[in-house]
Amino acid sequence: MHDADIAVREHATIERATHGPGTVAMTVRQGGERAVITGSHCLIATGRTPAIGALGLDAAGIASTARGITVDGRLRTNQRHVFALGDVIDGPRFTHAASYQAGIVVRNIAFRLPAQVDYRALPWVTYADPELAHVGLTEAAARTRHGDRVGVLNVPLARNDRAVVERRTAGSLKVVVDRGGRILGASILAPAAGEIIGLWCLAISRKLTLRAVAGLMLPYPTFGETAKAAASDYYKPALFSKTTRRLVGALGWLPR
Fold this sequence. Notes:
Layout: E1 13-20, E2 23-30, E3 33-39, H1 57-60, E4 64-65, E5 68-69, H2 95-109, E6 124-126, E7 131-136, H3 139-146, E8 150-156, H4 161-166, E9 172-178, E10 183-190, H5 193-205, H6 210-214, H7 226-239, H8 242-251
Antiparallel strand pairs: 1-2, 2-3, 4-5, 6-7, 7-10, 8-9, 9-10
């Protein structure tokens, strides 16, 4: 598939849908203009509804909404001795999220520890080609929370040697940081992005800065090296500033 095969229409309203033998036609309105999009199939992604109707929640006095069973940060229902997790609760519906939630419940029940969920480093991956992975805050969410104290780094995959060699340069790494270089979020569009995002999950969960990434020794050549490129871009202005050059010049006069 080539880039030209994909067209994204944002904020479009579907007015009509028709289908015939092997064809589907969607009439959409966007910005006051109407267009008809035709194809062979139509995929409707409307999310999932939790199947909780047969659980007898009312009889147990357990609160729920249309989005799922209501739980607190420790995954307890309003009946404090009953816990809920996974796709039946009002929360992130990923297999890896359910596995993480299971650990929280075990720590609460078996070890009596008041463990709570923390989704700040929750990753999600869209398994397209290339893959799209994200963790942490988006740029918009970071600016809402931190205002102008936000920096954004964009590293195109075309700067990565592995991508160039394999001729798979469509993609990029986007990192959102605060004024001190602390990593707030990361988005990756690249082959195996779901494998690469783990580094950024760790960075966000441990509240690391790009300095920690800059000091890493990563294998070459890999797509994951884009992390080092992002860290390099962040520190490059300070490294080549006039102040740094004066300092290096002054150090040259010191006795060896």
